[in-house]
Amino acid sequence: MPLKDSLLALLVAFLWGAQVTAVKIGGAELPPILMVAMRYAIMALFLMPLLKRVKREQFGPMVLIATITGTLHFGLLYCGIARVDASTSAIIYQLVAPFTLVLAFALLGEVLKVRALVGILLAFAGILVLLAKPPASGTFVGMLLVALAALAFAVGSVLAKRLGLLDPLALSAWTAVIAAPQLLLWSFIQEGGQWASVHTASAQAWWAVIYTALSGGLLGFGLWFWLLGRNSMQQLSPYLLLVPLFAIAVSKIMLAEGISQRLVIGAALTLSGVALCQLRLPGKFFLKAGGSKGQGVADEQR
């Protein structure tokens, strides 16, 4: 991969990692669901030119995917991050990879290889380490919400692949347009004092909202789709593993969050598991699930 592309992939990982801290900063003054609604409203203004007409039979499934990956996913994620520290949130969110593999196996009939199975077990073991010390009830709820957000994103991703809908940029545009009003309605029903919080929010909170929309959202995803057009997913996958590391580093600098031994162990297990799920490793060390005993296979990227 060219050096320029490597540096841009590194930048994307940083932008997405820092987004967790921005959510924490903004969520300290703004209701989380309202905050993500504002994020999508800003994104929708910029993505309007990318809206494309869709066939009538595709519109329903597209609304479903946008609702799951946009409204449900980010609503749960922001609510979860508001209740738990940024570092732990970033680690738990890595469950997207094992959740996606399991759902692809169940819904798409994709083969789960031994490498992937080991990775899934390691990832969940890392999350159990984070839960080893009984957390406060609010923190536990936050961790559960982040895990459910990861599951929601995995469900939406698998459905999008199964249905073969719009190109990624067009789907991002439709997601923003659909999710923004849905999230505003969700906030109106569940949250209180939204508009008062908007009027009293500091400049720091507003910059956090703008960052999540423009930098972490539009710029991050725009660069990522551009890189995908020039490089393979196998080349780019390792950079995704840097996202939680940047999230931990930025949260430590900006929020002065501590790093416990339990977090280090949990992160090491989870990221090792995610690496096994995502990266191509020498096939001679693994057997294909369901294959004959002793038969080595080339472990291919799924």
Automatic annotation (TrEMBL):
<feature type="transmembrane region" description="Helical">
    <location>
        <begin position="90"/>
        <end position="109"/>
    </location>
</feature>
<feature type="transmembrane region" description="Helical">
    <location>
        <begin position="116"/>
        <end position="132"/>
    </location>
</feature>
<dbReference type="InterPro" id="IPR037185">
    <property type="entry name" value="EmrE-like"/>
</dbReference>
<dbReference type="GO" id="GO:0016020">
    <property type="term" value="C:membrane"/>
</dbReference>
<feature type="transmembrane region" description="Helical">
    <location>
        <begin position="138"/>
        <end position="159"/>
    </location>
</feature>
<protein>
    <submittedName>
        <fullName>EamA family transporter</fullName>
    </submittedName>
</protein>
<dbReference type="InterPro" id="IPR000620">
    <property type="entry name" value="EamA_dom"/>
</dbReference>
<keyword id="KW-0812">Transmembrane</keyword>
<comment type="similarity">
    <text>Belongs to the EamA transporter family.</text>
</comment>
<keyword id="KW-1133">Transmembrane helix</keyword>
<keyword id="KW-0472">Membrane</keyword>
<feature type="domain" description="EamA">
    <location>
        <begin position="142"/>
        <end position="276"/>
    </location>
</feature>
<feature type="transmembrane region" description="Helical">
    <location>
        <begin position="32"/>
        <end position="51"/>
    </location>
</feature>
<feature type="domain" description="EamA">
    <location>
        <begin position="7"/>
        <end position="131"/>
    </location>
</feature>
<feature type="transmembrane region" description="Helical">
    <location>
        <begin position="171"/>
        <end position="189"/>
    </location>
</feature>
<feature type="transmembrane region" description="Helical">
    <location>
        <begin position="205"/>
        <end position="227"/>
    </location>
</feature>
<feature type="transmembrane region" description="Helical">
    <location>
        <begin position="239"/>
        <end position="256"/>
    </location>
</feature>
<feature type="transmembrane region" description="Helical">
    <location>
        <begin position="63"/>
        <end position="84"/>
    </location>
</feature>
<dbReference type="InterPro" id="IPR050638">
    <property type="entry name" value="AA-Vitamin_Transporters"/>
</dbReference>
<dbReference type="Pfam" id="PF00892">
    <property type="entry name" value="EamA"/>
</dbReference>
